[in-house]
Amino acid sequence: MKILILIPAYNEAENIERVVDNLIENYLDYDYVIINDGSTDTTRKICAKKDYNLLDLPVNVGLSGAIRSGMRYANYYGYDYVVQLDGDGQHDPKYIADMQAKMQETGCDIVIGSRFKIKKKPFTFRMFGSQMLTAAIWITTGGKYIGDVTSGMRLFNKKMIKRFGYDMHYSPEPDTLAYLLNCGVRIEEVQVNMHDRIAGVSYLNFKSSVWYMMKMLFSILIFQWVRIRVKEAN
Amino acid sequence: MSFTLQVILIAAAVTTVVWILRNIRKFRVKMEDAIFWTFFAAILLVLALFPEISYRLSSILGVISPANLIFVIVIFLLVEKIFTLSIIVSQLEDKIAVLSAELALRTHSAEQKLARKEINKDEFIKIETEKVSQVE
Q: Which chain B residues are within 8 Å of A68, Cβ to Cβ?
């Protein structure tokens, strides 16, 4: 049972060392790979200096492209499971064991590290958006509940590695979750706590989050119905 | 606005919607573009079904014929699309250039690495660190 930690990193020079050193010191059981998504800062240099395991993309392809490279890497080297951890250190690797246990216990295909499995969502503007997406998924999948739709901490099994690595248009976004649920893919959640960003800024501002919400709602509520569904045999 | 123009607009709107849905079905189009074309079709449909809108708008803007106003709106939307497309194409061309340059560079460096098999690890890390890629 081989498990790979996938760390997509775009301009994470301030964070990457802390994140990866923590993995190397405390989590020797897991292999990891950093996907440097064409960073314009010193991310690549830091990784080369510390001799980290690095997949260095020459141009910036965005998160979904970086994930796709990582999934192909996992498939190429024969990994059975992939965990996605953000390069900014929000996600604590100590929860990977919980997520793995959940996957074994339920036999599901994706486990999401959710901030809101047990805890309630705080009432902020951003969480209102998150709740809208949760509702949209709930409506369109016949009552399937996903609390933390935007969580980047996810565990995938072999079938999902193939889907995300080799099929077109599998972005790591909420609309893909809705689509996968309708394909018969099983998704579970595990309660995790996430750290705040220590350095750097989040890329989501007000304007881009409104556009993001519109894209997602359009995709989940309307376009999803016309997509061909590649069913998963369970 | 003539009845013929109305029919053409409705037909165009319906065709656009059917065409875009077919492409979404086969995962051939990105969500951003799908949203643009859906709005495009919606605007055509609204203008066709409620001619009063274009009459009112053309009298406000001082355009003689409402049909002309519709043409202007459509041209405006299409020019916007062409403009964003041309920006995207430029960026893609640039990316291909960078990709091929990097591919050649990295192949070259891998070949050199193979040639210097006896190299020790510290030296190797030093060489890797000293390489400069892109703008960093």
A: none
